[in-house]
Design goal:
With about 160 residues, the chain is α+β, with helices and mostly antiparallel strands. The protein is built from two helices and nine strands; from the N terminus they run H-E-E-H-E-E-E-E-E-E-E. The chain has an eight-stranded antiparallel barrel. A hairpin with a 2-residue loop joins strand 4 and strand 5. It starts with a helix and ends in a 7-residue tail after the last strand.
């Protein structure tokens, strides 16, 4: 009887350690995927297309806007080189489509969270997000009904991994 209890304790310990190792591995794998995408996002991006509620902004207005992303999840929105907003992002590249939560840390939107999705190319990036408090988009569309904001970027310059805006 005593031997059976000892064997059972050993079995429970081995199963528990195996499960904990799997969780730690999954967390490390997720962290690596997040950092990989953050490194790809890091740099200066020019906005090529901006659609709000389905209305496309004029090209000459949009081309004045750039976003500088840090590999740490920070960002800075600039108009003609002058910062007009900044904040942080939380991403999950394991979701399909990949998800992003945008949190401004300055200005009138400070403290709000905008839920969105993103797609990365080598020199392009797409982002679609909903107004604060609304459901996350499931596709890259913007119209009066869904009130989403769609942004398409082109890369201007990559940033070193340790730099932030």
């Amino acid at each position: 009887m005593q031997r059976s209890i000892t064997k059972l304790k050993i079995l429970v310990t081995v199963v528990t350690l195996t499960a904990l190792t799997a969780v730690v591995y999954a967390d490390e794998k997720q962290a690596a995927a997040i950092q990989k995408d953050r490194n790809l996002i890091a740099g200066t991006w020019q906005i090529e297309v901006l659609e709000i509620n389905g209305n496309r902004s004029a090209g000459e207005d949009v081309q004045q806007l750039t976003v500088v992303n840090g590999a740490d999840g920070t960002w800075s929105l600039r108009s003609d080189g002058n910062e007009v907003g900044r904040g942080t992002t939380t991403i999950d590249p394991s979701q399909r489509p990949k998800t992003i939560d945008i949190q401004p840390t300055s200005g009138q939107d400070q403290g709000k969270t905008y839920r969105g999705i993103y797609e990365l190319g080598k020199t392009t990036r797409k982002l679609c997000f909903a107004p604060a408090g609304k459901d996350r988009p499931t596709d890259f569309s913007s119209n009066a009904e869904n009130q989403h904001i769609f942004v398409k970027f082109k890369r201007l310059q990559a940033t070193q991994q340790k730099e932030s805006p």
